[in-house]
Write a structure and sequence with these properties.
Strand order of the largest sheet of chain A: 1-2
Number of helices of chain B: 0
Largest sheet of chain A: 2 strands, antiparallel
Number of strands of chain A: 2
Strand order of the largest sheet of chain B: 2-1-4-7
Distance between the termini of chain A: 84 Å
Structural class of chain B: mainly beta
Shape of chain B: globular
Distance between the termini of chain B: 28 Å
Number of strands of chain B: 9
Oligomer: heterodimer
CATH architecture of chain B: Sandwich
CATH class of chain B: Mainly Beta
Order of helices and strands of chain B: EEEEEEEEE
Number of domains of chain B: 1
Shape of chain A: globular
Largest sheet of chain B: 4 strands, mixed
Radius of gyration of chain A: 23 Å
Structural class of chain A: mainly alpha
CATH topology of chain B: Immunoglobulin-like
Number of helices of chain A: 12
Protein backbone atom coordinates (compact mmCIF):
# COMPACT_ATOMS: atom_id res chain seq x y z
CA UNK A 1 0.00 0.00 0.00
CA UNK A 2 1.41 3.38 -0.94
CA UNK A 3 1.64 6.21 1.56
CA UNK A 4 -1.15 8.05 -0.27
CA UNK A 5 -3.57 5.11 -0.12
CA UNK A 6 -2.69 4.56 3.54
CA UNK A 7 -3.57 8.14 4.33
CA UNK A 8 -6.78 7.83 2.32
CA UNK A 9 -7.73 4.61 4.10
CA UNK A 10 -7.04 6.20 7.47
CA UNK A 11 -9.24 9.13 6.51
CA UNK A 12 -12.09 6.76 5.64
CA UNK A 13 -11.68 5.01 8.98
CA UNK A 14 -11.78 8.36 10.76
CA UNK A 15 -14.93 9.37 8.86
CA UNK A 16 -16.59 6.06 9.74
CA UNK A 17 -15.65 6.52 13.37
CA UNK A 18 -17.05 10.05 13.45
CA UNK A 19 -20.29 9.01 11.76
CA UNK A 20 -20.49 5.99 14.01
CA UNK A 21 -20.20 8.18 17.08
CA UNK A 22 -22.92 10.45 15.78
CA UNK A 23 -25.59 7.92 14.91
CA UNK A 24 -24.94 4.63 16.67
CA UNK A 25 -24.42 3.29 20.12
CA UNK A 26 -22.36 5.25 22.61
CA UNK A 27 -19.73 3.67 24.80
CA UNK A 28 -20.50 3.68 28.50
CA UNK A 29 -18.39 3.92 31.57
CA UNK A 30 -18.90 0.42 33.00
CA UNK A 31 -18.67 1.63 36.58
CA UNK A 32 -21.41 4.16 35.91
CA UNK A 33 -23.87 1.62 34.58
CA UNK A 34 -23.16 -1.26 36.97
CA UNK A 35 -25.90 -0.04 39.30
CA UNK A 36 -28.48 -1.04 36.68
CA UNK A 37 -27.55 -4.73 36.60
CA UNK A 38 -30.33 -7.03 37.74
CA UNK A 39 -30.37 -8.25 41.31
CA UNK A 40 -29.75 -12.00 41.45
CA UNK A 41 -32.85 -13.09 43.33
CA UNK A 42 -36.11 -12.11 44.95
CA UNK A 43 -35.72 -10.31 48.24
CA UNK A 44 -37.33 -11.99 51.23
CA UNK A 45 -38.43 -10.52 54.54
CA UNK A 46 -36.55 -12.10 57.48
CA UNK A 47 -39.77 -12.10 59.50
CA UNK A 48 -41.78 -13.66 56.68
CA UNK A 49 -39.67 -16.19 54.76
CA UNK A 50 -41.27 -17.28 51.51
CA UNK A 51 -42.63 -20.75 50.80
CA UNK A 52 -44.77 -22.15 47.99
CA UNK A 53 -47.70 -22.49 50.40
CA UNK A 54 -47.44 -18.85 51.47
CA UNK A 55 -47.21 -17.62 47.89
CA UNK A 56 -50.19 -19.76 46.85
CA UNK A 57 -52.28 -18.43 49.73
CA UNK A 58 -51.28 -14.86 48.97
CA UNK A 59 -52.08 -15.32 45.31
CA UNK A 60 -55.57 -16.61 46.14
CA UNK A 61 -56.21 -13.72 48.53
CA UNK A 62 -54.89 -11.19 46.00
CA UNK A 63 -57.38 -12.31 43.34
CA UNK A 64 -60.33 -12.92 45.67
CA UNK A 65 -63.14 -10.32 45.55
CA UNK A 66 -64.44 -11.67 48.85
CA UNK A 67 -61.73 -9.52 50.45
CA UNK A 68 -63.82 -6.41 49.72
CA UNK A 69 -66.91 -5.15 51.54
CA UNK A 70 -69.02 -5.46 48.40
CA UNK A 71 -67.39 -8.80 47.47
CA UNK A 72 -66.87 -7.32 44.01
CA UNK A 73 -63.30 -5.99 44.20
CA UNK A 74 -60.02 -7.75 44.72
CA UNK A 75 -56.47 -6.41 44.93
CA UNK A 76 -56.21 -7.49 41.28
CA UNK A 77 -59.09 -5.20 40.30
CA UNK A 78 -56.59 -2.35 40.40
CA UNK A 79 -53.34 -4.35 40.17
CA UNK A 80 -54.30 -6.20 37.01
CA UNK A 81 -51.59 -8.47 35.54
CA UNK A 82 -52.94 -7.75 32.07
CA UNK A 83 -52.29 -4.04 32.57
CA UNK A 84 -48.76 -4.13 33.93
CA UNK A 85 -50.14 -4.92 37.41
CA UNK A 86 -51.84 -1.53 37.41
CA UNK A 87 -55.28 -0.54 36.05
CA UNK A 88 -54.75 1.56 32.95
CA UNK A 89 -56.71 4.42 34.53
CA UNK A 90 -55.55 7.95 35.36
CA UNK A 91 -56.58 7.40 38.96
CA UNK A 92 -57.96 4.31 40.66
CA UNK A 93 -61.63 3.40 40.96
CA UNK A 94 -62.67 2.36 44.45
CA UNK A 95 -65.72 1.43 46.48
CA UNK A 96 -69.00 2.19 44.67
CA UNK A 97 -67.15 3.24 41.50
CA UNK A 98 -65.74 6.28 43.32
CA UNK A 99 -62.81 7.95 41.61
CA UNK A 100 -59.76 8.09 43.87
CA UNK A 101 -57.23 10.92 43.79
CA UNK A 102 -54.08 8.99 42.85
CA UNK A 103 -52.98 6.54 40.18
CA UNK A 104 -52.57 2.85 40.99
CA UNK A 105 -48.85 2.06 41.23
CA UNK A 106 -47.70 -1.18 39.65
CA UNK A 107 -46.71 -3.90 42.09
CA UNK A 108 -43.97 -5.14 39.75
CA UNK A 109 -40.69 -5.35 41.70
CA UNK A 110 -42.33 -4.12 44.89
CA UNK A 111 -40.19 -6.81 46.52
CA UNK A 112 -37.26 -4.43 46.22
CA UNK A 113 -39.04 -1.45 47.77
CA UNK A 114 -38.25 0.09 51.13
CA UNK A 115 -41.20 2.48 51.34
CA UNK A 116 -44.61 2.16 49.75
CA UNK A 117 -47.52 4.21 48.38
CA UNK A 118 -47.10 7.52 46.53
CA UNK A 119 -46.68 9.33 49.84
CA UNK A 120 -44.57 6.65 51.53
CA UNK A 121 -47.00 6.01 54.37
CA UNK A 122 -46.30 2.27 54.40
CA UNK A 123 -42.96 0.80 55.32
CA UNK A 124 -43.15 -2.84 54.23
CA UNK A 125 -45.20 -4.95 51.87
CA UNK A 126 -46.81 -6.58 54.90
CA UNK A 127 -47.62 -3.13 56.28
CA UNK A 128 -49.06 -2.06 52.94
CA UNK A 129 -51.16 -5.13 52.19
CA UNK A 130 -54.04 -4.46 54.58
CA UNK A 131 -54.29 -0.73 53.85
CA UNK A 132 -56.33 -0.76 50.63
CA UNK A 133 -58.41 -3.71 51.83
CA UNK A 134 -59.66 -1.76 54.84
CA UNK A 135 -59.73 1.75 53.34
CA UNK A 136 -63.35 3.01 53.17
CA UNK A 137 -62.94 4.43 49.69
CA UNK A 138 -61.04 1.44 48.33
CA UNK A 139 -62.07 -2.14 49.16
CA UNK A 140 -64.02 -1.05 52.25
CA UNK A 141 -63.57 -4.31 54.11
CA UNK A 142 -64.20 -4.62 57.85
CA UNK A 143 -61.44 -6.86 59.19
CA UNK A 144 -63.68 -8.66 61.70
CA UNK A 145 -66.12 -9.57 58.95
CA UNK A 146 -63.26 -10.64 56.68
CA UNK A 147 -61.81 -13.00 59.27
CA UNK A 148 -65.24 -14.52 59.83
CA UNK A 149 -65.81 -14.84 56.10
CA UNK A 150 -62.50 -16.54 55.40
CA UNK A 151 -62.98 -18.87 58.37
CA UNK A 152 -66.13 -20.28 56.80
CA UNK A 153 -64.24 -21.32 53.67
CA UNK A 154 -62.74 -24.80 54.04
CA UNK A 155 -60.16 -24.23 51.33
CA UNK A 156 -58.80 -21.14 53.07
CA UNK A 157 -58.70 -22.87 56.48
CA UNK A 158 -56.47 -25.53 54.93
CA UNK A 159 -54.30 -23.04 53.08
CA UNK A 160 -53.70 -20.87 56.18
CA UNK A 161 -52.88 -24.00 58.21
CA UNK A 162 -50.43 -25.11 55.58
CA UNK A 163 -48.81 -21.70 55.07
CA UNK A 164 -48.70 -20.43 58.64
CA UNK A 165 -49.18 -23.45 60.93
CA UNK A 166 -50.70 -22.60 64.29
CA UNK A 167 -51.26 -18.92 63.50
CA UNK A 168 -54.88 -19.21 62.42
CA UNK A 169 -56.64 -16.82 60.07
CA UNK A 170 -55.42 -13.45 61.34
CA UNK A 171 -54.82 -10.00 59.85
CA UNK A 172 -51.10 -10.61 60.25
CA UNK A 173 -51.24 -13.90 58.33
CA UNK A 174 -53.33 -12.30 55.55
CA UNK A 175 -50.80 -9.47 55.22
CA UNK A 176 -47.81 -11.82 55.20
CA UNK A 177 -49.36 -14.11 52.59
CA UNK A 178 -50.25 -11.26 50.23
CA UNK A 179 -46.77 -9.79 50.64
CA UNK A 180 -45.23 -13.19 49.88
CA UNK A 181 -47.16 -13.38 46.63
CA UNK A 182 -46.33 -9.80 45.66
CA UNK A 183 -42.62 -10.54 46.07
CA UNK A 184 -42.92 -13.04 43.22
CA UNK A 185 -44.18 -10.37 40.79
CA UNK A 186 -40.89 -9.27 39.29
CA UNK A 187 -39.80 -8.03 35.91
CA UNK A 188 -37.97 -10.71 34.00
CA UNK A 189 -35.58 -10.77 31.12
CA UNK A 190 -35.84 -7.39 29.42
CA UNK A 191 -33.99 -6.30 26.27
CA UNK A 192 -32.13 -3.78 28.46
CA UNK A 193 -30.88 -6.54 30.76
CA UNK A 194 -29.80 -8.67 27.80
CA UNK A 195 -27.94 -5.70 26.34
CA UNK A 196 -26.17 -5.00 29.61
CA UNK A 197 -25.09 -8.64 29.71
CA UNK A 198 -23.40 -8.17 26.36
CA UNK A 199 -26.03 -8.92 23.72
CA UNK A 200 -25.37 -5.85 21.58
CA UNK A 201 -28.38 -6.31 19.29
CA UNK A 202 -30.88 -6.72 22.12
CA UNK A 203 -31.78 -3.02 21.88
CA UNK A 204 -31.75 -0.46 19.09
CA UNK A 205 -29.11 2.24 18.67
CA UNK A 206 -31.84 4.76 19.50
CA UNK A 207 -32.39 3.02 22.84
CA UNK A 208 -28.64 3.02 23.54
CA UNK A 209 -28.52 6.74 22.84
CA UNK A 210 -31.56 7.14 25.06
CA UNK A 211 -29.74 5.41 27.91
CA UNK A 212 -26.81 7.78 27.46
CA UNK A 213 -29.23 10.72 27.70
CA UNK A 214 -30.83 9.08 30.73
CA UNK A 215 -27.44 9.07 32.45
CA UNK A 216 -26.28 12.44 31.15
CA UNK A 217 -28.08 15.34 29.54
CA UNK A 218 -31.57 14.39 30.70
CA UNK A 219 -30.25 13.35 34.15
CA UNK A 220 -33.15 10.97 34.77
CA UNK A 221 -30.69 9.06 36.94
CA UNK A 222 -30.90 11.82 39.54
CA UNK A 223 -33.95 9.91 40.80
CA UNK A 224 -34.37 6.73 38.72
CA UNK A 225 -31.40 4.85 40.12
CA UNK A 226 -30.24 1.27 40.45
CA UNK A 227 -31.58 -2.02 39.16
CA UNK A 228 -35.16 -1.00 39.84
CA UNK A 229 -34.74 2.50 38.39
CA UNK A 230 -35.91 4.25 41.55
CA UNK A 231 -34.11 5.92 44.43
CA UNK A 232 -36.97 4.98 46.79
CA UNK A 233 -37.08 8.71 47.40
CA UNK A 234 -39.51 11.63 47.19
CA UNK A 235 -39.41 14.53 44.75
CA UNK A 236 -41.62 17.39 43.64
CA UNK A 237 -41.35 17.29 39.85
CA UNK A 238 -43.86 20.06 39.19
CA UNK A 239 -46.85 18.05 37.97
CA UNK A 240 -50.00 20.10 37.41
CA UNK A 241 -53.21 19.33 39.24
CA UNK A 242 -55.75 17.73 36.92
CA UNK A 243 -58.79 19.94 36.24
CA UNK A 244 -61.52 19.21 38.74
CA UNK A 245 -59.17 17.53 41.23
CA UNK A 246 -57.87 19.04 44.48
CA UNK A 247 -54.20 19.89 44.96
CA UNK A 248 -52.31 16.94 46.44
CA UNK A 249 -49.57 17.61 49.02
CA UNK A 250 -48.13 14.10 48.56
CA UNK A 251 -45.34 13.22 50.98
CA UNK A 252 -46.05 16.36 53.03
CA UNK A 253 -49.12 14.60 54.41
CA UNK A 254 -46.74 12.19 56.14
CA UNK A 255 -43.76 14.45 56.77
CA UNK A 256 -44.37 18.14 57.46
CA UNK A 257 -41.24 19.53 55.86
CA UNK A 258 -41.56 22.23 53.23
CA UNK A 259 -39.50 20.34 50.66
CA UNK A 260 -41.95 17.45 50.81
CA UNK A 261 -44.93 19.53 49.69
CA UNK A 262 -46.04 18.11 46.37
CA UNK A 263 -43.34 15.42 46.50
CA UNK A 264 -44.17 11.85 45.53
CA UNK A 265 -42.27 8.59 45.53
CA UNK A 266 -40.09 7.90 42.50
CA UNK A 267 -41.76 4.99 40.69
CA UNK A 268 -39.84 2.16 39.08
CA UNK A 269 -39.32 2.43 35.34
CA UNK A 270 -39.36 -1.34 34.93
CA UNK A 271 -42.37 -2.26 32.74
CA UNK A 272 -43.10 1.46 32.37
CA UNK A 273 -44.34 1.05 28.79
CA UNK A 274 -47.16 -1.13 30.18
CA UNK A 275 -48.26 1.11 33.03
CA UNK A 276 -49.77 4.21 31.42
CA UNK A 277 -51.18 6.69 32.38
CA UNK A 278 -48.27 8.30 34.19
CA UNK A 279 -47.52 10.45 37.24
CA UNK A 280 -49.26 10.29 40.63
CA UNK A 281 -52.44 11.72 39.14
CA UNK A 282 -52.29 9.98 35.77
CA UNK A 283 -52.09 13.28 33.90
CA UNK A 284 -50.06 11.91 30.97
CA UNK A 285 -51.21 9.13 28.72
CA UNK A 286 -47.94 8.53 26.83
CA UNK A 287 -44.24 8.33 27.59
CA UNK A 288 -43.73 11.08 25.01
CA UNK A 289 -45.83 13.42 27.17
CA UNK A 290 -43.76 12.43 30.20
CA UNK A 291 -40.52 13.28 28.41
CA UNK A 292 -42.01 16.61 27.30
CA UNK A 293 -42.85 17.36 30.95
CA UNK A 294 -39.24 16.88 32.02
CA UNK A 295 -38.01 18.76 28.97
CA UNK A 296 -40.06 21.76 30.13
CA UNK A 297 -38.51 21.41 33.59
CA UNK A 298 -41.92 20.70 35.09
CA UNK A 299 -45.00 22.93 35.10
CA UNK A 300 -45.61 23.96 38.72
CA UNK A 301 -42.43 25.72 39.82
CA UNK A 302 -43.27 26.22 43.48
CA UNK A 303 -41.14 23.98 45.69
CA UNK A 304 -39.69 22.22 42.66
CA UNK A 305 -36.95 19.61 43.23
CA UNK A 306 -33.53 21.15 42.58
CA UNK A 307 -32.81 18.48 39.97
CA UNK A 308 -35.61 19.82 37.75
CA UNK A 309 -34.60 22.21 34.96
CA UNK A 310 -35.41 22.68 31.26
CA UNK A 311 -33.47 20.02 29.36
CA UNK A 312 -33.50 21.46 25.82
CA UNK A 313 -33.83 18.03 24.25
CA UNK A 314 -34.06 17.72 20.48
CA UNK A 315 -36.91 15.83 18.86
CA UNK A 316 -34.56 12.90 18.19
CA UNK A 317 -33.34 12.89 21.77
CA UNK A 318 -36.91 12.67 23.06
CA UNK A 319 -37.56 9.74 20.73
CA UNK A 320 -34.36 8.06 21.96
CA UNK A 321 -35.36 8.40 25.60
CA UNK A 322 -38.73 6.78 24.94
CA UNK A 323 -37.06 4.00 22.97
CA UNK A 324 -34.78 3.37 25.94
CA UNK A 325 -37.68 3.19 28.39
CA UNK A 326 -39.44 0.65 26.17
CA UNK A 327 -36.45 -1.69 26.56
CA UNK A 328 -37.36 -2.11 30.23
CA UNK A 329 -40.38 -4.25 29.31
CA UNK A 330 -40.18 -7.96 30.09
CA UNK A 331 -40.41 -10.12 27.01
CA UNK A 332 -43.24 -12.28 28.29
CA UNK A 333 -45.36 -11.82 31.36
CA UNK A 334 -47.67 -14.79 31.14
CA UNK A 335 -49.53 -15.40 34.33
CA UNK A 336 -52.09 -17.97 35.46
CA UNK A 337 -54.83 -16.62 37.71
CA UNK A 338 -55.76 -18.93 40.60
CA UNK A 339 -58.91 -20.94 41.15
CA UNK A 340 -60.23 -19.49 44.39
CA UNK A 341 -60.65 -21.64 47.53
CA UNK A 342 -64.18 -22.92 48.32
CA UNK B 1 -10.90 5.76 56.14
CA UNK B 2 -10.04 9.36 55.49
CA UNK B 3 -9.22 11.34 58.57
CA UNK B 4 -11.91 13.87 57.84
CA UNK B 5 -14.60 11.24 58.20
CA UNK B 6 -13.28 9.59 61.33
CA UNK B 7 -15.77 9.48 64.14
CA UNK B 8 -14.99 11.85 66.93
CA UNK B 9 -12.16 13.65 65.24
CA UNK B 10 -12.45 17.38 65.68
CA UNK B 11 -11.37 19.26 62.60
CA UNK B 12 -11.55 22.94 63.25
CA UNK B 13 -11.85 24.81 66.50
CA UNK B 14 -14.81 27.14 66.52
CA UNK B 15 -13.71 30.74 66.21
CA UNK B 16 -16.14 31.89 68.87
CA UNK B 17 -15.69 29.12 71.38
CA UNK B 18 -12.32 27.57 71.92
CA UNK B 19 -13.92 24.41 73.35
CA UNK B 20 -16.35 23.82 70.45
CA UNK B 21 -15.35 21.44 67.71
CA UNK B 22 -16.46 20.89 64.14
CA UNK B 23 -17.31 17.48 62.73
CA UNK B 24 -18.12 16.28 59.26
CA UNK B 25 -20.75 13.76 58.24
CA UNK B 26 -20.73 12.53 54.66
CA UNK B 27 -23.84 11.68 52.66
CA UNK B 28 -22.45 9.08 50.34
CA UNK B 29 -24.09 6.25 48.38
CA UNK B 30 -27.38 7.26 49.94
CA UNK B 31 -26.15 6.72 53.50
CA UNK B 32 -24.77 8.86 56.29
CA UNK B 33 -21.16 8.17 57.19
CA UNK B 34 -20.77 7.62 60.04
CA UNK B 35 -24.25 6.68 61.30
CA UNK B 36 -23.45 7.54 64.92
CA UNK B 37 -21.65 10.56 66.32
CA UNK B 38 -21.00 11.65 69.89
CA UNK B 39 -20.35 15.36 70.36
CA UNK B 40 -20.49 18.04 73.04
CA UNK B 41 -22.93 20.92 73.44
CA UNK B 42 -21.87 23.77 71.18
CA UNK B 43 -20.16 21.56 68.63
CA UNK B 44 -20.88 22.03 64.93
CA UNK B 45 -21.64 19.26 62.44
CA UNK B 46 -21.17 19.84 58.73
CA UNK B 47 -23.29 17.53 56.56
CA UNK B 48 -21.60 17.20 53.15
CA UNK B 49 -23.29 15.75 50.07
CA UNK B 50 -20.81 13.45 48.32
CA UNK B 51 -23.41 11.94 45.98
CA UNK B 52 -24.04 13.16 42.42
CA UNK B 53 -27.66 14.04 43.28
CA UNK B 54 -29.51 16.11 45.87
CA UNK B 55 -29.82 15.30 49.55
CA UNK B 56 -31.56 16.85 52.54
CA UNK B 57 -30.88 16.69 56.24
CA UNK B 58 -33.44 17.24 58.97
CA UNK B 59 -34.37 16.23 62.49
CA UNK B 60 -37.63 16.45 64.38
CA UNK B 61 -35.99 15.46 67.67
CA UNK B 62 -36.81 17.47 70.79
CA UNK B 63 -33.13 18.07 71.44
CA UNK B 64 -32.62 19.72 68.06
CA UNK B 65 -35.20 20.30 65.39
CA UNK B 66 -34.05 21.54 61.98
CA UNK B 67 -34.57 21.22 58.23
CA UNK B 68 -31.94 22.61 55.88
CA UNK B 69 -33.81 21.95 52.62
CA UNK B 70 -32.13 20.15 49.75
CA UNK B 71 -28.70 20.77 48.31
CA UNK B 72 -26.63 19.35 45.43
CA UNK B 73 -23.36 17.43 45.18
CA UNK B 74 -20.40 18.98 46.91
CA UNK B 75 -22.37 21.34 49.12
CA UNK B 76 -22.67 21.09 52.88
CA UNK B 77 -24.93 22.35 55.63
CA UNK B 78 -23.74 23.24 59.12
CA UNK B 79 -25.77 22.68 62.25
CA UNK B 80 -24.78 23.74 65.78
CA UNK B 81 -26.05 21.48 68.53
CA UNK B 82 -26.82 23.61 71.58
CA UNK B 83 -28.61 21.22 73.93
CA UNK B 84 -27.67 17.83 75.37
CA UNK B 85 -29.62 14.76 74.29
CA UNK B 86 -30.17 12.44 71.36
CA UNK B 87 -30.81 13.74 67.86
CA UNK B 88 -32.17 11.45 65.15
CA UNK B 89 -31.12 12.77 61.77
CA UNK B 90 -32.63 11.77 58.43
CA UNK B 91 -32.72 12.73 54.76
CA UNK B 92 -36.24 13.73 53.75
CA UNK B 93 -35.63 12.81 50.12
CA UNK B 94 -34.31 9.33 50.93
CA UNK B 95 -36.10 8.24 54.12
CA UNK B 96 -33.93 5.15 54.62
CA UNK B 97 -30.94 7.44 55.31
CA UNK B 98 -30.76 7.74 59.08
CA UNK B 99 -28.15 8.49 61.74
CA UNK B 100 -27.98 9.41 65.42
CA UNK B 101 -26.05 12.18 67.15
CA UNK B 102 -25.55 12.05 70.89
CA UNK B 103 -24.92 15.48 72.38
CA UNK B 104 -23.31 15.51 75.83
CA UNK B 105 -22.50 18.31 78.26
Amino acid sequence: MTRRTTVAASFVVIIVCVIGTAVSAPNFNQAKVEQFQRLPQIVESPSNPMSPARVALGKALFFDPRLSGSQSMSCASCHNPSLGWSDGLPTAIGQGMSKLRRATPTIVNSAYGSVFMWDGRKHSLEDQALGPIQAKDEMNMDMTILLERLSTIKGYREMFDHAYPGEGITPDAIAKAIASFERTVVSTNTPFDRWRRGEQRAVSDAAKRGFELFLGKADCVACHQGFNFTDEGFHNIGVKTVDGMKDDDGRYEQLKLRGMKGAFKTPTLREVALTAPYMHNGIYTTLEEVVDHYDRGGDVKDNLDISMRPLKLSTQEKIDLVEFMKTLTSERLEFAVPRLPQ
Amino acid sequence: MKIKYCLGVALIACAFDASAAEYEIAQRNKAFAPVYLKIKVGDVVNFVNDDPFAHNVYSLSETKSFDVGSYPKGQGKQITFDKPGQVFVECAIHPFMKMKIEVTQ
